Amino acid sequence: MKKKHNDSQEKRPLLLTTGEPAGIGMDVVLLLAAENKLQDFLRPIWVTADANAMEKRADALIAAGVLKICPTWQTFDIDDLKEEALTKQISQQSTDTDQAFVLLNIPCDAPVTSGQINIDNSAMVAKQLEIAHKLATNQTVAAIVTGPLQKSALIDAGIKLPDGTMFSGHTEFFMQQSGCEKVVMMLANQAMKVALVTTHLPLKDIPAAITAENVRQTVQIVIDDLREKFGLTQPRILVCGLNPHAGEGGHLGSEEIEIINPVLREFINAGVDISEAMPADTLFTSRHLANCDTVIAMYHDQGLPVLKSHGFGDTVNLTLGLPYIRTSVDHGTALDLAGRGGASATSLYQALIMANEMADRSIVNIPLA
Ligand SMILES: N[C@H](C(=O)O)[C@H](O)COP(=O)(O)O
């Protein structure tokens, strides 16, 4: 593949959604901005938030002694701007390099109180995701980095996924908005990367979701994105079984024999460095992890507790298989810390670093027309 570098592509912004306004999404942006860490990225950082709430949160953090200095930013009302005009207007006006970030103002419908969810503001949270999706799809921004939202608040407000089903997370929202049949949730930190065959499902619904097609699509997306987004040309993958002891030869469950292993053997026979289903309890030991780039787990709480116990706060959540780059923090809204201090911005910083690296890699891989 021929390579080219394109200056305008390189300078495309990273779009950061602050998510739930009562949570710590704005706090962690302000913390990074005050430490001049948003300037580490050779790209503009665009942040979606309510402008008034952001100012009040900065005041609260200064009053709490958490921020020594108040970072400065430039605010744009995006409601008035069509996406095509947005980049032009912002790049014309944002000439002041002292500004830590560009704030895309999405007003809340109700006043924001730190730590207190108000479901009247859930539409504003959903709007952040819609705008992020639009700006990533039309390539105005190089990547989306999402802050935490409160899933229950969106559900209680009656906000649905694009297909009309219950809101269950960014992952499913961006998948449906993009028209993807399947995406893969992966969480990554220094210790390991864990990708999931199923995402936000009740435990009782998981066995039915472990189909040959789901396993096959998951593995293929993981392979493709490890190559494309992480630059791993020959990824080494270990796969958890669904049942204890990976089914103990069929005595503790048959999914491994009937569904999972036949699919994994297709990949093994095609030359992919991937295991058959392994007992999850021993897979996650250093002996196995030392020789593996990614673990594929069958469900959320099979893989993520192990990963988060090795680095909660330094972990990045990302969505594989989307037509754009999306990374995210590994934590929730931490309502008890909002506006008070105590929130850590390390996961957001790691999510920005990962999105930035992936965006740089995607420029190098743009084929010449
Ligand atoms: N499963 C995610 C985690 O453990 O961090 C979290 O629920 C966020 O999911 P979304 O990115 O789909 O909102």
UniProtKB/TrEMBL annotation:
<dbReference type="InterPro" id="IPR005255">
    <property type="entry name" value="PdxA_fam"/>
</dbReference>
<keyword id="KW-0520">NAD</keyword>
<protein>
    <submittedName>
        <fullName>4-hydroxythreonine-4-phosphate dehydrogenase</fullName>
    </submittedName>
</protein>
<dbReference type="Pfam" id="PF04166">
    <property type="entry name" value="PdxA"/>
</dbReference>
<keyword id="KW-0479">Metal-binding</keyword>
<keyword id="KW-0560">Oxidoreductase</keyword>
